[in-house]
Specification:
Layout: E1 2-5, E2 20-25, E3 33-38, E4 42-47, E5 52-56, E6 71-76, E7 84-89, E8 93-98, E9 103-107, E10 122-127, E11 135-140, E12 144-149, E13 154-158
Antiparallel strand pairs: 1-2, 3-4, 4-5, 5-6, 7-8, 8-9, 9-10, 11-12, 12-13
Length: about 160
């Protein structure tokens, strides 16, 4: 897995904070990387075994590793070492679609983008009430999140000050 660009917060995952205009390998990744999600200053990788790791800035808990400490190398997301189907990253929050169709989110929650009904930042994944199964796809923005159900319905939560 290779990344390049701004690396002020370690979002390239190579253990440094030096930006690069050429691809550099992320360090400490185990196994195959199935997909990536890049937020404003953090990055997450879905591994071949269904586990999830993230790296970069973590001021709002967006790495999901039970800390608020930045990491320049991949760290495991708490409680998601297997069974993840997809990951999406927003400005400062992240969501995962589990293989059973349930949704978990974490990170900045001032606008409710994590979806747990609070405005408390979460540094570990929390279940999104009402979305414990049946979700086919996810997407997130700056402070909001949306889920597409397997039956074609859409549910969104979080920031809505611009409709």
């Amino acid at each position: 897995m290779l990344c390049w660009g701004n690396n002020r917060f370690g979002q390239l995952g190579n253990g440094s904070a030096i930006s690069s205009n050429v691809p550099v390998a992320a360090s400490r990744l185990r196994g195959v990387v199935k997909s990536l999600a890049a937020g404003w200053s953090h990055t997450c990788a879905l591994l071949g075994d269904g586990g999830l790791v993230c790296w970069g800035t973590n001021t709002k808990g967006q790495l999901g590793d039970a800390t608020f400490i930045q990491s320049r190398s991949p760290v495991p997301v708490y409680g998601l070492s297997e069974g993840v189907q997809a990951v999406v990253a927003g400005h400062r929050h992240t969501c995962a679609l589990r293989a059973d169709g349930g949704v978990k989110c974490w990170g900045e929650n001032a606008s409710g983008g994590v979806g747990d009904g609070s405005a408390v930042n979460r540094n570990t994944p929390v279940d999104v009430p009402g979305l414990s199964a049946g979700v086919a796809a996810l997407e997130v923005g700056a402070g909001h999140s949306c889920a597409l159900s397997a039956t074609g319905g859409v549910e969104c939560w979080g920031r809505n000050d611009r409709g």
